Amino acid sequence: xxxxxxxxxxxxxxxxxxxxxxxxxxxxxxxxxxxxxxxxxxxxxxxxxxxxxxxxxxxxxxxxxxxxxxxxxxxxxxxxxxxxxxxxxxxxxxxxxxxxxxxxxxxxxxxxxxxxxxxxxxxxxxxxxxxxxxxxxxxxxxxxxxxxxxxxxxxxxxxxxxxxxxxxxxxxxxxxxxxxxxxxxxxxxxxxxxxxxxxxxxxxxxxxxxxxxxxxxxxxxxxxxxxxxxxxxxxxxxxxxxxxxxxxxxxxxxxxxxxxxxxxxxxxxxxxxxxxxxxxxxxxxxxxxxxxxxxxxxxxxxxxxxxxxxxxxxxxxxxxxxxxxxxxxxxxxxxxxxxxxxxxxxxxxxxxxxxxxxxxxxxxxxxxxxxxxxxxxxxxxxxxxxxxxxxxxxxxxxxxxxxxxxxxxxxxxxxxxxxxxxxxxxxxxxxxxxxxxxxxxxxxxxxxxxxxxxxxxxxxxxxxxxxxxxxxxxxxxxxxxxxxxxxxxxxxxxx
Length: 495
Ligand code: HEC
Fold this sequence. Notes:
Elements: H1 6-11, H2 21-28, H3 30-33, H4 40-43, H5 59-67, E1 69-75, E2 78-84, H6 93-104, H7 116-125, E3 133-134, H8 135-141, E4 151-159, E5 175-179, E6 195-205, E7 209-218, E8 220-225, E9 228-233, E10 244-250, E11 253-263, E12 269-276, E13 283-284, E14 301-302, E15 310-312, E16 323-328, E17 332-337, E18 342-348, E19 352-353, H9 355-360, E20 371-375, E21 386-393, E22 399-405, E23 408-419, E24 422-432, E25 438-443, E26 448-452, E27 455-458, E28 462-466, E29 471-474, E30 477-482, E31 488-494
Parallel strand pairs: 1-3
Antiparallel strand pairs: 1-2, 4-5, 4-6, 6-11, 7-10, 7-12, 8-9, 8-11, 12-13, 14-19, 15-16, 16-17, 17-18, 18-20, 21-22, 22-23, 23-24, 24-31, 25-30, 26-27, 27-28, 28-31, 29-30
Bound molecules: heme C.
The site of heme C (HEC) has 31 residues, from helix 3, helix 5, strand 1, strand 2 and helix 6.
């Protein structure tokens, strides 16, 4: 995983005029850390938004930018094991200061500015250093300062016996406390049974967009964002039995979060978390991880075994309800939509984690477990009269999807192969029957560009090779013309 964008970075001009931190960030950091600091390429790179690393004492981030970072590093509960190349030679002190000042004051961050002098003195003090930092080494020098997940958090404790969420607004609390750690916790409440707690605090979201919230309580309660009830757990029961996961569109910046909780008798626990839609991990607002695992289900990796392609027939995030997953030997994977009659996602590495659906009876959609996920399309691109006629598996478990389009039949076969010496997906398209050629959309999401001859790039990580014909682009769509009786093989490889 050392596919760095150094040539690209080196070719960019030094924006030497104004020290516009946002502009410099876009130029020097966004390729890996994402335009909004969310971690580029679906979180293959670690995020800066929500990360404690650039906050607090700025020396830690200054040193990382100057000399790079390599080896395992944990950000928000997830571990990356990559290499960030040093940026010190490319960036003068003023630019590093401007970028870090921007990072420290964006996406809800409120840390103070970084001065060029501070960068200058660290650069001078470490003039002889050439090796990259490792996380344990730099954390020893500059431990992370943990910022509270909820700001100005206050808890209100109530006495009462409830088997359903009461209207707490009409009740009088028996205790009120400031929670300086900003974490929803039952540890200090000091009551066993027959009580309620309400927490109110500020939640800062990093960007406009879709979010997911997770709420679970033993016995019950409500999750309320800006006065709107997002989730409710009613009745009496253990944790995990009634967990609610909801999506909500929200805006960048501060929001008011209110969490209501009641405990009847027995065990007690509360779990609250959020994440950007599709983000790999939850940001926990409760300390409940100590009471149970953050993930409610065990890892059950599904993978090709003994040279046979694995199949996954449950909801896959990023495709439609009737998406079917195939994990081929060699670590190349496909999600094909039987609603849209086309491939929608391809990726490398791990196929799917079956634990969620096998132990949780299929709530929600599971994202691909691997890397380099490429979204090919998510809209219908086939002709209106196209009909799905099912699929067949060959003895190795490789699928051929079958469709009719008017009086013609289209066969779409997939098997593993190689492209430029690396594992690849080999797709053979065969149009059978009299009629016109078919304009087939290969992708309308990831852009396709000709490299030379019959080789193309697809998005930033993928390669396409055709054994016949050529791809035409129409707007953002890459179109392959299929002539009846003349099969075309398209190979999808990774750089
Ligand atoms: C070529 C890709 C790349 C570029 C460009 C890059 N980084 Fe990184 N950065 C990484 C990787 C990869 C890691 C994790 C390294 C590891 O696994 O040890 C990282 C880690 C970090 C971390 C610590 C972990 C975290 O997520 O908070 C900070 C802070 C950071 N980078 C800041 C920056 C800033 C600021 C810039 C722009 C000046 C920048 N990086 C440019 C790839 C990059």
